[in-house]
Amino acid sequence: MPIASVNPATGEVLETFEPLDDAGLDRRLALAEAAFHDYRTTTFVSRAALMHRAADLLDQDQEAVARTMTEEMGKPLAAARAEAAKCAKAMRWYADNAEALLADEHPAAADVADAGAARAYVRYRPLGAVLAVMPWNFPFWQVIRFAAPALMAGNVGLLKHASNVPRTAVAIEELFRRAGFPEGCFQTLLIGSGAVEGVIRDRRVAAVTLTGSEPAGRAVAAAAADEVKKAVLELGGSDPYVVMPSADLAGAVRIAVRARAQNNGQSCIAAKRFIVHTDVYGAFTAAFTEAMQSLKVGDPMDEDTDVGPLASRQGRDDLEELVEDARTHGARVECGGGRPMGWDTGYFYEPTVLTGITPAMRIHQEETFGPVATVYRVAGLDEAVALANDTPFGLSSNVWTRDEAEQERFVRDIQAGGVFFNGMTASHPALPFGGVKRSGFGRELSGHGIREFCNVTTVWIG
């Protein structure tokens, strides 16, 4: 079956691609194996030159790249431009820092002597071909934050992108090819999800990284574990956004809207559950609802659009089911709650605020992947922490408080891979990114991310 690129704002099929057959897939895996044999011996200086060239090309192509992303998955065009710029920034960061991040480590002289060695050190060596199974919501960024560190470490990359963004997937391979990376260093595999397990199990693939849903993560992790191969997983999130009485309330409201509506609400690290202290609950909820209601839903190609369509019909239908279930069980719809008027085509959904959420509602535990916010009232810090942790996920968290004692308590007790105070969760190449619980394991970005796919080698010299 062809892989189709569909514009979610119109439902129009933009382009179709034939998936790789078995022979084509085998050729690409063989090419990756051959490329790694030589590429692993290249210097950091030569890799950095290639990565800088790729970043320069991406800057030059920013408008075309942004339009491809917007046409394929519906993010507002301004957000797509920002995503392309962020990718170029990360590529340059790894080009400039990889050598230092992977420098040999030397134990203390006394420890070397105690180990019976004349010299001993630790060296980071590349593993081989790394398969990346990536999602559609940040179709360039999710790939680059894997590819830049992997390639700078001396690995080669294989990309199985989400099937609804094939044009973006092809464009990323083309970017690295144009930058001068040797043939086979980065390849897009146009295959269906059913072929992923076979690629993981192939002897020519050394490791796998996945960003996506929990079911997909379970399947990938199971195959990798069975083959005793390294895996990194970044799965779903239901991030809390806690507002305490000492917060800058105007700032908390303003950032709350961005944190929930970014990328049309389709972000694992978007704030989803707004946990508000009773002393400021009324003021926050009223201002937040008004601001969410004022967001402009429309054509993502229009510069003044705030919220575009969801990426797929299924995604919109799933979101509608969650909201309807909450409404049926007594939730109050403060704004939104349905498809916007005037958009009969495309997969649009109104920015929505729900209150009165109870554990009987699916939305209390399930991730909302769209512009829908749930707001809770809590009596104090203990209740806020308990509610923040009352989720199977643990990706990141946001807390608004200027009380340093409260900040320390949240850092100690919130079960998440990140705690962001008085701002919104965002990824940056210098900071590790990942989660706990059912949000996955391992880390991307920073030195932690580039070392995930390295052979940490002990060298002992007698």
TrEMBL record:
Residues 3-459 form the Aldehyde dehydrogenase domain. One of its GO terms (molecular function) is succinate-semialdehyde dehydrogenase (NAD+) activity. It holds the Pfam family Aldedh. Keywords: NADP, Oxidoreductase. It comes from the Bacteria. InterPro entries: Ald_DH/histidinol_DH, Ald_DH_C, Ald_DH_CS_CYS, Ald_DH_N, Aldehyde_DH_dom, ALDH_GabD1-like, GABD/Sad-like. Belongs to the aldehyde dehydrogenase family. This is NADP-dependent succinic semialdehyde dehydrogenase. It comes from Streptomyces kaniharaensis. The lineage of its organism: Bacteria, Bacillati, Actinomycetota, Actinomycetes, Kitasatosporales.
